[in-house]
Amino acid sequence: MRRAAVAVTISALAITATACGKAGDDDSDSGSSSSGDKSIGLLLPDSVTTRYAKFDKPYFDAKVKELCSDCKLEYANAAGSAATQAQQVSSMITKGVKVIAISAVDSAAIKSSIQAAVDKGIKVVAYDRLAQGPVSAYISFDNEKVGELQGQSLLDAMGSKATPSANVVMINGLASDPNAALFKKGAHSVLDGKVKIAYEQSGDWDDKVAAQKMSAAITQLGAKKIAGVYSANDGMAGGIATVLKGAGISTVPLTGQDAELSSIQRILAGTQASTIYKAYKPEADAAAELSVNLLEGKSIDSLATTTQTSGSGDKVPSQLLTPVALTKDNIESTVIKDKLYTVAEICTADFAAACKKAGLQ
């Protein structure tokens, strides 16, 4: 487990949805929300997934500020530790927050902490990951669809090599993350029978762990006998891509997820075939709106129009957004159009030639 991130008081509207920063980083701008009268807590799971710091947190912050100018905000990052996140929930309870938006490190382990918060009259919004326990609302993407898109993108990239005997390596996400199970389920629904899943392991959302698993797969199967690699997210794909390059494997399609800047560059360079783009702003905006509505006692019926059942059997009002498969062909119409990245950010010197070839310069 990574060292715990210290719960930090965020400025009057600064609780953006980040899973970023090193353990102990202080993201606060000013002030304290000890009064808890109109305070919202945001707890995010890890500091290795770049989307949280760069996108989720700032978007969440801005939307809360727009909807509730006098709300006070608390933020903490668990740095991958379920025990730390449980302590952070306790801290939020002590500070008197009225709503907690949480992306759980471990959806089952956090159940008792969520129950403790609810027992104190706190509303809980499950953000991106469906935590167990009496959650008031859940906002995420259609995560089984994410896996389906990943699987289909891999088959598309494999082309004629996608045969029932073709060896595919699957490096899945953290086993305790309920989303990882949905990605895996969706991917299998597309890949099973079309290719042979010859090696499958959890990569724990960690590039180093994923790299180790990929090295083991190459040792077990042989470098020349791997036709495709499924990576559940871009962070792991980075580690996997390094191992593939070191093994002299340059033409094997590799998937990902999260549309990280490095993955977009790998797609342009040809060392990653695809990623999944999940527009973070709509997700963060929806989480903020749900949180503010719950704080102010307003209905969430128009926001959470469907229901999902958590691992604890709780039926949770939910809003599920639609993911998009991203390849070299739609970089401009997705992440650039949505201003996630600029052409200048993507097309640095090392990728200038690839960008020009793709029509981005």
Structure description:
This protein has 361 residues and is α/β, with parallel strands linked by helices. It contains twelve helices and 13 strands. It has helices spanning 50-67, 82-95, 111-119, 143-158, 178-191, 207-221, 234-246, 261-269, 280-296, 332-336, 343-346, 352-358, and strands spanning 8-9, 39-44, 72-77, 99-102, 123-127, 137-141, 167-172, 196-202, 228-231, 275-277, 306-309, 315-321, 324-326. The strands form three sheets. Strands 1-3-2-4-5-6-12-11 form an eight-stranded mixed beta sheet, sandwiched between helices. A three-stranded parallel beta sheet has the order 8-7-9. β4 (99-102), α3 and β5 form a beta-alpha-beta unit.
Helicity range: 25-40%
Strand percent estimate: 15-25%
Kindly report the spatial arrangement of strands forming the biggest sheet.
Answer: 1-3-2-4-5-6-12-11
Oligomer: single chain
Shape: globular
| Alpha plus pi helix count | 12
Task: Write down how many β-strands occur, each being a DSSP E stretch of 2 or more residues.
Answer: 13
Order of helices and strands: EEHEHEHEEHEHEHEHHEHEEEHHH
Question: Structural class of the helix and strand makeup?
Answer: alpha/beta
| Average pLDDT for all residues | 90
